[in-house]
Amino acid sequence: ATATAEVPTRLMELTPMELNCCLAGLVALGCCEHKFFMSVGKSALARHKTFGPKELTTLLTILSEVRLVHGNLFTSAAEAISARVRELRPAELLRCARALSRCGVKSEAFCQAAGDDVVGRWEKSNT
Predict the structure, then answer these.
(1) Which residues of the chain fall below pLDDT 50?
(2) Angstrom distance (rounded) from CA 38 to CA 63
(3) CA torsion, points 90, 116, 17, 41, in degrees to nearest 10?
(4) Residue 10: CA atoms inside 13 Å, Cβ hemisphere, count?
(5) How much is the pLDDT for 38?
(6) Contact 43, 70 (CB under 8 A)
């Protein structure tokens, strides 16, 4: 309870990696306070463009584990990731797709970028 009271006041100070580590630890400890995760979602939405695609994928994965559907965050993150999908490893790409689907978020841009990337990788490996 102390961590979930302290972290929201410092969300903007944390790097994306620090935020993800903090969230992963709290989830592992069984934290599922909706109010806390909503404040995390709002903070992340305000600065999601400072996250790299890997950090956004990790954030979406963690939030999907607690079934937090922050539609604007997930939609904006999917758009940001789709522009840089080539930076993700195949496992990260699948984790991102799974996080979006778990929360019922549809993104044509992400699906198109992911599909193009998978086909491109397959063609490259078969030439």
Answers:
(1) none
(2) 10
(3) -120
(4) 12
(5) 86
(6) no
CB atoms within 10 A of CB 89: 10
CA atoms within 13 A on the CB side of 43: 21
pLDDT at 127: 80
Q: Which candidate, 41, 36, 44, places its Cα nearest to that of 5?
A: 36
pLDDT reported for residue 20: 94
Interior angle at CA 73, CA 105 and CA 91, nearest 5: 65
Output the pLDDT for position 77. 96
Which sign, positive or negative, has the C-alpha torsion 23, 26, 28, 34? negative
